[in-house]
Amino acid sequence: MALLNAIAIVLSLAAVSADASIIFDVADVEVTPGQTLTLSCGVRQEFRHCLWENERGDIFQVEDVHAGVHPGLRAPEDLTDNQCGVVIDSVSVEDLGAWTCRVFLAGRTLLASRNVGKTQAESCPDPFVLLGGQCYYFHTSTTLSWQDAREYCWSMDTAADLAVVDDCHQFAIIWDHILIYYTGKWFWVGGTDLGQEGEWYFINGNPVPMGLPFWLPGSPNDEGNCLDISVNSGYFNDYPCVNKGSFICQIM
After folding, report:
1. Which of the chain's ends, N or C, has fewer CB atoms near its CB within 10 Å?
2. 146-155: long-range pairs with CB below 8 Å, 24+
3. Which CATH class is domain 129-251?
């Protein structure tokens, strides 16, 4: 949790409707997790209703927010030129990504989006190490099943989980670290097809990249439903989730 308090979240405008009848806050703003954030959106003409949609596809009808239906979201104190505004009482890492305001007029819809992103960490809480701007913990003292490894990560930090490795550059950095410090060990990471056989996703919902340079040639081969980094090759491999191995936690 200490890392979260040290990470700033930066908000910048991603896109604004060209229609002058929609009013949207275009100023960049920087907040710290746990602080309050106002998402502003207003209209200069009569409209039917409006909503906000976040990066994960969650939809929040503004009428419901203003009525107190969604815990942690509420109406701004001043609704002047901000009839569709909402307030997030305590910003968290789950609020990262695009937030889109949709205003429904008679016969058309106005859209305005802003992107919520976080700065890279400059340091990590012990025992996490900083690699490529991300905080990882390589657990090798005991071996656990994939699910038990997830729960161990959760116990370390409220924002920690098994690592999401969906970028070639980051994958190379992690593999180099394994070669230097943990030769001969394989590691669970946060990918699985337990939701539907053959459809691989990371625990944050991102798809697991297929083929080279990520997967061991010939994999996945239905050997298992959980994702590991192979001890010999440095590729992804599908492995039975009940098997016990080392694992990599990441602060998301």
Report:
1. N
2. 146/188, 146/192, 146/226, 146/241, 146/242, 146/243, 146/247, 147/241, 149/188, 149/245, 149/247, 149/249, 150/190, 150/203, 152/247, 152/249, 153/247, 153/249, 153/250
3. alpha beta
Whole-number Å distance between alpha carbons of 58 and 13: 20
Q: How far apart are CA 229 and CA 208, in angstroms?
A: 13
Nearest to 80 by CA among 125, 23, 132: 23
> In whole angstroms, how far apart are CA 136 and each of 170, 210, 211?
11, 23, 24
Give the span between the Cα atoms of 228 and 190, in whole angstroms: 8
Whether residue 200 has pLDDT greater than 90: yes
pLDDT band of residue 96 (cuts 50, 70, 90) is: confident
**Cβ 26 vs Cβ 40: under 8 Å:** no
Q: Which CATH superfamily is domain 22-118 in?
A: Immunoglobulins (2.60.40.10)
Domain ranges of the chain: 22-118, 129-251
